[in-house]
Amino acid sequence: MALNFSVFKVRALSALVFVIIMLCGLIWNNYSFFTLFLIIAMGCLFEYQKLLSLIYPNYKSISLFHKWGFYLLAAGIMFTLSAKILPLEGQIFKLVGTRIVPAILVIMIIGDVLSKKISLQNWAITIGGLIYIPMALSLFYQIKGAPVSTYYRNWDFAIPLLIIVAVWVNDTMAYLVGSMIGKRQISTVSPNKTWEGTIGGMLISILVVSKATAYFIPDLNTNAVFLICLVSVVAGNYGDFFESKLKRMAGVKDSGSMMPGHGGFLDRFDSILLAGPFVWLLLDIMYHQ
Question: What are the structural domain ranges in the chain?
Answer without folding.
Answer: 5-287
